[in-house]
Design goal:
With about 160 residues, the protein is of the alpha+beta class. The chain has a single domain, classed as Aminopeptidase (3-Layer(aba) Sandwich), CATH 3.40.630.30. About 35% of the residues lie in helices and about 25% in strands. It has helices at about 15-25, 40-45, 100-110, 125-135, 150-160, and strands spanning about 5-10, 55-60, 60-75, 80-90, 120. Strands 1-2-3-4-5 form a five-stranded mixed beta sheet. Helix 3 (about 100-110) links the parallel strand 4 (about 80-90) and strand 5. The protein starts with a strand and ends with a helix.
Length: about 160
Amino acid sequence: MSDITIRPANEADVPLILRFIRELAIYEKLEHEVVATEDGLRTTLFGVKPAAEVLIASLRGEPVGFALFFSNFSTFLGQAGLYLEDLYVVPEARGKGAGLALLRELARIAIARGYGRLEWWVLDWNQPSIDFYKALGAEPMDDWTVYRLGGEAMQRLAAGS
């Protein structure tokens, strides 16, 4: 893993971040859902009030992956947590330690900030990732179902109709 470096992303990384997002979407068979733009990411990640942070993983100086994360909060713990929205490593670099290095850095950040946990979602069919996460000691939250409200449904709710 000495060939792997992890660093915080900066504004110049926006094209790279968007490239990784698109590659991840293709891997997850969700490329039709990507509407992110460089301008939008620039504002959202590096503007006045950043909504998330990004780490870039490099292998021998070449960017090979990223992790995008933000703070959340657990009322039961009474403390903040770190939510990993996306973790992606290019296929040719998988199995070389970049994913582990990204998760290790996220755990260090969570601990340094006094957060109570690190959590994320994984698609049910993504067995290689599930096996990897379980090997790290991560536990699936099988008793919970994720719900999402967006688009027109969110607009209707907000309008009271």
